[in-house]
């Protein structure tokens, strides 16, 4: 049994976007703050009360709201943030979808939206409009009225399908 | 918002977790944390230590065992949703939002006993049981006895929910109807129904209500109206009106008490109508 006393700090290991990091944290420190301090400022603090989803990241394959997780809970976890999506200077199809379909205005909710879309499309590569809307029900956007965000995710779903076919042929 | 200072305990077994919780009155177990961490951030609670449960294998797993499903306390809403358990999976699919469902657990939810939570409606309708583990061994209680009052359960300090036992409900048609103010919110009214017919006659019916009382209730009078009859529109209406007597809601941002009572009738009616063949 490992006991960290209330005034003690503890070393944790995180693998963020494929790179390992070691941080020393108080048990009460939130994951979102650790990620931002590591430079992953695409992880936004929006409502800070697990409503808005701006802090959404992928942890061990599942989308989570990093404002409602202790950093110590994420010890040894693999985390993907929006910074980890593009590869070789090319945007991820979801990012491309938000660009092409004008899926953002102020952009504050966008990284969270993109990460939740990433989880949604991993679970369900061919979502219907209703499934997309349900899938992003944990992410709030106050600008777009969601219409173009839904279009962007549809675009990404089709593009990813095409890429999959190209890969296999 | 930053949580207050607390210590953090990572036990290697349920035994170690229980021993620590027993000897530290103000230590709290941490499962998915999606009620606990918001409460910490709002400084509603100030535990001395959090005891991490997430790695404890004995609290995990989701399997069929004879006539029942045995659902480990640490099963997330995401896992319950995908497990194809009658009534319970459908209910899990409408809890909060996808991110919360990826973290929140069934054991944590029922231990927190928020009166507005969803699980109590199906669990009371299913006559589910709760397996509780402590240093004295294991005991099993009916879910109806497990929930005592709002945010109050049968658990003592040092006791943990190990698993939930839910019957297979073979031959039943089931539905959970939830009225919510906005996507991902707590229920204004939640109605769970399980119904079994033989040749068009109702042989068993269970109606569980959540969010309109300090704890989930069975609408027994409604059940009695329906049993040994066939599911007609007239009877559904009578049963739905009878359900109102089991609601004792409070007025809050989600609506007035009067509105919520009316919604008990509306949602019960909707649930029963959806089960008409």
- List unreliable stretches of 5+ residues of chain B: none
Measured distance between first and last alpha carbons of chain A: 52 Å
User: The CATH topology of the largest domain in chain A is what?
Assistant: DNA polymerase, domain 1
Find the structural class of chain A using helix and strand composition.
alpha+beta
Number of helices of chain A: 5
Oligomer state of the chains in this structure: heterodimer
Which pair of chains has the greatest number of interface residues, and how are they split between the two chains?
A-B, 36 and 36 residues
- Strand-pairing-aware structural class of chain B: alpha+beta
Q: Given this structure, which CATH class of the largest domain in chain A is correct?
A: Mainly Alpha
CATH topology of the largest domain in chain B: Uridine Diphospho-n-acetylenolpyruvylglucosamine Reductase, domain 3
CATH architecture descriptor text of the largest domain in chain A: Orthogonal Bundle
Helix content of chain A: 25-40%
Percent of residues in β-strands of chain B: 25-35%
Spans where pLDDT lies below 50 across 5 or more residues of chain A: none
- Mean pLDDT across the residues of chain B is 97
Determine Rg of chain A (CA atoms, Å).
Answer: 17 Å
- Largest sheet composition of chain B: 5 strands, antiparallel
Structural summary, described in words:
The complex is a heterodimer of chains A (169) and B (277). Chain A is α+β, with helices and mostly antiparallel strands and 169 residues long. Chain A folds into 2 domains: 10-84, Beta-grasp domain (Ubiquitin-like (UB roll)), CATH 3.10.20; 93-168, [2Fe-2S]-binding domain (DNA polymerase, domain 1), CATH 1.10.150.120. Helices cover 34% and strands 17% of the residues of chain A. In chain A, a hairpin with a 2-residue loop joins strand 2 (10-16) and strand 3 (19-25). With 277 residues, chain B is of the alpha+beta class. Chain B folds into 3 domains: 7-52, Uridine Diphospho-n-acetylenolpyruvylglucosamine Reductase, domain 2, CATH 3.30.43; 57-167, Uridine Diphospho-n-acetylenolpyruvylglucosamine Reductase, domain 3 (2-Layer Sandwich); 173-274, Enolase-like, domain 1. Helix content of chain B is 31%, strand content 28%. Chain B has helices at 14-23, 36-41, 77-81, 88-92, 98-103, 106-112, 120-125, 143-146, 220-226, 233-243, 257-274; strands at 7-10, 28-30, 49-52, 62-65, 68-72, 129-134, 137-142, 147-149, 152-153, 160-167, 173-180, 187-198, 201-210, 217-218. The chains are: A alpha+beta (169), B alpha+beta (277). The A-B interface holds A 1-8, 10, 26-28, 30, 48-51, 53, 56, 62-65, 68-70, 72-73, 116, 119-120, 134-135, 137-139 and B 1-12, 16, 20, 30, 33-34, 37-38, 40-41, 48-50, 52, 54, 78, 96-100, 102-103, 183-184. Strand 1 of chain A pairs antiparallel with strand 1 of chain B, so a sheet runs across the interface.
């Amino acid at each position: 049994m490992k006991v960290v006393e209330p005034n003690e700090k503890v070393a944790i290991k995180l693998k963020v976007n494929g790179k390992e990091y070691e941080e020393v944290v108080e048990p009460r420190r939130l994951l979102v703050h650790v990620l931002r301090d590591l430079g992953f400022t695409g992880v936004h603090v929006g409502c800070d009360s697990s409503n808005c989803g701006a802090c959404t990241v992928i942890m061990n394959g599942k989308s989570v709201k990093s404002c409602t997780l202790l950093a110590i809970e994420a010890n040894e976890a693999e985390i993907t943030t929006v910074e980890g999506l593009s590869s070789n200077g090319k945007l991820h199809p979801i990012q491309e979808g938000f660009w092409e379909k004008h899926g953002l205005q102020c952009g504050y909710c966008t990284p969270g939206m993109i990460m939740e879309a990433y989880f949604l499309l991993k679970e369900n590569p061919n979502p219907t409009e209703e499934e997309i809307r349900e899938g992003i029900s944990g992410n709030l956007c106050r600008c777009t009225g969601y219409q173009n965000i839904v279009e962007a995710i549809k675009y990404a779903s089709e593009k990813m399908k095409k890429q999959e076919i190209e890969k296999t042929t | 918002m930053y949580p207050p200072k607390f210590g953090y305990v990572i036990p290697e077994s349920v035994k170690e977790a229980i021993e620590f919780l027993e000897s530290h009155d103000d230590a709290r177990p941490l499962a998915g944390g999606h009620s606990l961490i918001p409460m910490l951030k709002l400084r509603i609670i100030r535990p001395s230590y959090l005891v991490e449960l997430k790695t404890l294998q004995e609290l995990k797993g989701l399997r069929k065992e004879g006539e029942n499903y045995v659902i480990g306390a640490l099963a997330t809403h995401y896992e319950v949703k995908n497990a194809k358990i009658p009534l319970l999976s459908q209910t899990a699919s409408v809890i909060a939002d996808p991110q919360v469902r990826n973290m929140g657990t069934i054991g944590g939810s029922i231990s927190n006993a928020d009166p507005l939570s969803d699980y109590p409606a199906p669990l009371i309708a299913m006559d589910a049981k709760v397996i509780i583990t402590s240093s004295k061994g294991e005991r099993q209680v009916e879910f109806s006895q497990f929930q005592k009052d709002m945010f109050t359960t049968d658990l003592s300090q040092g006791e943990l929910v190990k698993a939930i036992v839910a019957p297979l409900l073979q031959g039943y048609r089931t539905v959970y109807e939830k009225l919510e103010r906005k996507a991902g919110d707590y229920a204004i009214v939640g109605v769970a129904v399980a119904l079994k017919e033989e040749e068009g006659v109702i042989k068993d019916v269970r109606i569980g209500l959540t969010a309109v009382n300090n704890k989930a209730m069975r609408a027994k009078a409604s059940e009695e109206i329906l049993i040994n009859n066939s599911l007609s529109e007239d009877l559904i209406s009578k049963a739905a009106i009878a359900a109102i007597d089991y609601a004792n809601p409070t007025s809050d941002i989600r609506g007035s008490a009067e509105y919520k009572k009316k919604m008990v009738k509306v949602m019960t009616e909707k649930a029963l109508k959806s089960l008409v063949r």
